[in-house]
Write a sequence for this structure.
C-alpha cells in the first residue's frame, strides 16, 4: 500500500493532497491547520486523521505476546519447551504488562513447528498433557491474560487420518481434499507468486494415483473448504477448543482457503472471504467474545476485505508496520514476504511513512481492525535487521507501543533477541534468554531442541548450534535477568511504554490523531485526542544524534513526562537525546 502526503502551505490557504491527486474535505481524513498566533510558525501546522470508532471488545485494548512454545521454557529438561514451563512464566508476562498470549501451534503434529496438524483434538505430546494445557489456560485467566491458539484450517498433515482415508477413497472422505487426475501444465504455482510452477503445488499420491493440491508443499495438503462436510468438521474442532477455555484463534494463511483456478485465483477469492465469514459466525455463536485475527500477508486494502463489512474476521495483522519501521531505522536491509507480498515496499523511508501507514489503515477498514507488530516467527528478528543497535530497538518499541490498535510482541523482542544467522526459520525461533547460565534459564539441563538432529530430518549430518551461539552471548546483557537489573535496558523501556499505554486509553484508541511535521525530519511528533483529553508523543528517530526541534505552542509549558514521571518545562525549542521518546 502506497499513500504519500505532501504538505503545501500558502499565504492564503492550507490544503492537504495525496499522491493520487484527490483532495479530502476539511475535518475528514486529512486536515492542515495553523494556529493564528504566528503565520510563519511551521511547528503549529498539523495534519489530522479523524477516527471516532467504537472499540469495546477486549482485544481492542490488548497487547498480545507471541510464544513459540518449543523455545520458551522447558520444565522437564528434555530440550523442548512445554505447558508447565510456560505456566511458570505467567508472572513474568503479567509483570511485563501484556494481557494476551498467542501460542503458535500446540496440536499434535509430526514437525517441530506444528503447522501440519496430525490430530486436531490432542495437544502436542512434546509440550505435555491436556490437563497441563488446561491448567495453563486457567492460570493465565487468573492473571487476566487471554490466550489465543494458532489454528491452521487451510491445510493439514499428509499423515492425518482424513488424508489417508481420502487417498484410499474411503466413503465420505473422497472430497476432503482437492484431487485431479492430471497435473496442470501451466497457470498454477505458489499462490503468493506469479511464477508458473504447477509442480510446486500439485503433488502425486501413489495410493490414489492422482494429484492433490498443497500450496505449502506435499506434506501439507490443502483441505477442500468448499465441501460442507469439511466445514462442519472444522466448526466442530473450533467448538472443542473454545469449550476448553481458549479466547480465540490466530488463523494461519487465510488468503489461500479456496482456490478458483490458477494464479491469481489461488488467493483472496470471494470463496475464501465467504468461508472465513461462515467460520466467524460459527465461532461467535459458541463464544461471542472470542477473537479471530487473520494472517493475511498482503497490502492493507486486501487485508481489509476479510472484515467483510463487519460480518467477517475481527482483526488482521498489519505486516506493513514492522516493514516500515525497519525501513526507517535501517533502509539498507532488504526485506521479503516469505508467504505473501509486501504492501509498502515503495514508501518513503522517513517519518512520512508513519503517517501514510496510519492513513492507509483508516482507508482500508476501521483503524481498530488492524494489529501492528514488529516481527513474528516467519520473519528475521528485528534486532538482526537493526544490526544489534539497542537504541534503534528502543525507537522501534516506542513507535509500536504508541500506535493505535491491538499490538503483538514476539517473545524475546523485549530484550533484543537476535538470531544466529539467516537461511532457516529455526534461527528466528531460538531459545528464550532468561538468564546468563549455560542453559539460558530455559531448563536445568542445558539441552536444546535446536541442537537435536531429530527435529531436522531433511538435514544430513545436522550440527547443533545454539549452545555455542549462546556461549558467545553470555554476560553481554542480553537476558531477562541482566536487563531487569538495568534501569536503562530495552526490557525496562518496554515495561515503561506498556504501563503508560495500559493506563492511557487515548494511546490505544484515539478519536483523532494530529501529525505535526516539525522542522527536524528526525522527530516524529503526534497528538492523540480522546475522551479523556490529549496525549503528545515525541520520538527522536535518530539513534545516534540528538535532535533539536521547535514544538507547537499547545505543547509548551509545564508538563509531566509519563515515561519518566519527571516534571518538565517545555520551551519553544527542545532537544531530544538519541532515540529518546517523550509522552505528555
Amino acid at each position: 500500500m502506497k499513500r504519500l502526503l505532501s504538505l503545501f502551505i500558502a499565504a492564503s490557504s492550507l490544503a492537504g493532497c495525496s499522491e493520487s491527486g484527490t483532495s479530502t474535505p476539511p475535518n475528514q481524513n486529512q486536515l492542515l491547520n495553523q494556529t493564528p498566533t504566528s503565520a510563519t510558525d511551521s511547528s503549529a501546522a498539523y495534519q489530522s486523521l479523524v477516527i471516532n470508532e467504537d472499540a469495546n471488545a477486549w482485544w481492542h485494548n490488548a497487547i498480545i505476546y507471541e510464544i513459540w512454545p518449543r523455545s520458551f521454557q522447558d520444565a522437564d529438561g528434555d530440550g523442548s519447551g512445554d505447558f508447565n514451563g510456560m505456566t511458570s512464566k505467567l508472572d513474568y508476562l503479567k509483570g511485563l504488562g501484556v494481557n494476551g498470549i498467542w501460542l503458535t501451534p500446540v496440536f499434535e503434529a509430526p514437525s517441530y513447528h506444528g503447522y501440519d496438524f496430525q490430530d486436531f483434538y490432542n495437544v502436542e505430546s512434546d509440550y505435555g498433557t491436556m490437563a497441563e494445557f488446561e491448567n495453563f489456560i486457567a492460570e493465565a485467566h487468573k492473571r487476566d491474560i487471554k490466550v489465543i491458539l494458532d489454528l491452521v484450517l487451510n491445510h493439514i498433515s499428509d499423515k492425518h487420518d482424513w488424508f489417508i482415508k481420502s487417498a484410499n477413497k474411503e466413503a465420505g472422505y473422497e472430497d476432503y481434499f482437492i484431487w485431479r487426475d492430471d497435473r496442470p501444465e501451466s497457470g498454477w504455482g505458489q499462490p503468493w507468486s506469479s511464477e508458473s510452477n504447477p509442480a510446486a503445488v500439485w503433488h502425486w499420491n501413489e495410493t490414489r494415483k492422482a494429484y492433490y493440491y498443497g500450496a505449502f508443499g506435499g506434506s501439507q495438503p490443502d483441505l477442500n473448504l468448499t465441501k460442507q462436510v469439511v466445514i462442519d468438521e472444522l466448526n466442530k474442532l473450533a467448538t472443542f477448543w473454545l469449550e476448553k477455555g481458549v479466547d480465540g484463534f490466530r488463523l494461519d494463511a487465510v488468503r489461500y482457503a479456496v482456490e478458483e483456478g490458477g494464479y491469481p485465483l489461488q488467493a483472496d477469492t470471494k470463496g475464501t472471504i465467504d468461508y472465513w465469514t461462515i467460520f466467524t459466525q460459527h465461532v461467535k455463536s459458541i463464544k461471542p467474545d472470542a477473537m479471530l485475527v487473520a494472517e493475511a500477508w498482503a497490502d492493507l486494502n486486501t487485508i481489509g476485505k476479510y472484515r467483510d463489512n463487519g460480518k467477517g474476521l475481527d482483526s488482521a495483522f498489519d505486516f506493513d508496520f514492522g516493514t516500515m519501521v525497519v525501513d526507517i531505522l535501517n533502509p539498507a536491509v532488504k526485506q521479503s514476504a516469505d508467504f505473501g507480498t509486501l504492501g509498502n515496499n515503495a514508501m518513503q523511508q522517513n517519518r512520512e511513512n508513519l503517517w501514510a501507514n496510519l492513513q492507509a489503515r483508516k482507508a482500508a477498514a476501521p483503524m481498530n481492525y488492524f494489529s501492528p507488530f514488529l516481527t513474528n516467527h516467519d520473519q528475521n528478528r528485528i534486532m538482526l535487521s537493526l544490526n544489534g543497535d539497542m537504541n534503534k530497538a528502543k525507537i522501534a518499541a516506542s513507535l509500536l507501543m504508541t500506535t493505535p490498535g491491538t499490538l503483538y510482541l514476539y517473545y524475546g523482542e523485549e530484550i533484543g533477541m537476535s538470531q544466529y544467522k539467516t537461511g532457516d526459520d529455526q534461527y528466528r525461533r531460538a531459545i528464550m534468554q532468561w538468564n546468563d547460565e549455560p542453559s539460558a534459564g530455559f531448563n536445568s539441563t542445558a539441552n536444546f531442541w535446536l541442537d537435536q538432529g531429530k527435529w531436522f530430518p531433511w538435514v544430513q549430518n545436522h550440527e547443533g548450534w545454539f549452545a555455542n551461539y549462546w556461549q558467545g552471548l553470555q554476560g553481554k546483557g542480553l537476558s531477562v535477568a541482566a536487563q531487569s537489573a538495568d534501569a536503562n535496558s530495552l526490557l525496562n523501556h518496554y515495561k515503561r511504554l506498556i504501563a503508560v499505554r495500559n493506563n492511557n486509553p487515548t494511546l490505544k484508541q484515539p478519536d483523532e490523531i494530529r501529525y505535526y511535521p516539525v522542522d527536524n525530519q528526525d522527530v516524529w511528533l503526534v497528538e492523540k485526542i480522546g475522551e479523556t483529553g490529549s496525549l503528545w508523543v515525541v520520538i527522536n528517530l535518530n539513534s545516534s544524534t540528538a535532535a533539536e526541534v521547535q514544538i507547537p505552542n499547545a505543547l509548551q509549558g509545564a508538563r509531566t513526562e509519563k515515561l519518566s514521571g519527571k516534571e518538565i518545562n517545555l520551551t519553544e525549542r527542545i532537544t531530544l537525546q538519541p532515540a529518546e521518546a517523550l509522552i505528555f
